[in-house]
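User: Teach me something about this protein's shape.
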Amino acid sequence: MKLGTEYHGLSYDALTAHTAFVFLRYMFMSVEKRDDEDDRTIGELFYCMVDELADITFNHSLQILVEAMFESVKEIFQPTEEQMERFTNAFISRLPKYMQEAISPSLAA
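Assistant: First, the predicted structure itself:
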């Protein structure tokens, strides 16, 4: 920020004021930089267009994957209910403990 080279006064008050102006100038430059780079700063109209995606939780993503796998198995192999239950139990028992706990009871049954 060149605090030592821009100003050569000896007064503590003047040096404090100069430091405040340097920080103010830095804040203005930061705001201008953000205005140039980020569409969310253009205004309310464009802010709605640049919504960020919500974070998907581990449990939800695991649920989606397991449901997709089970639906594919049902469609391709057409197992009976007993075979599907055995497959489900065998699959879940091979998962790590934290994944077993993340799967909802509806799939575990």
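Now, about its shape. The CA atoms of residues 63 and 104 lie 8 Å apart. The helical segments are 3-6, 12-37, 44-47, 58-77, 81-94, 97-102, 105-108. If you'd like, I can walk through any region in more detail.
User: That's plenty for now, thanks!
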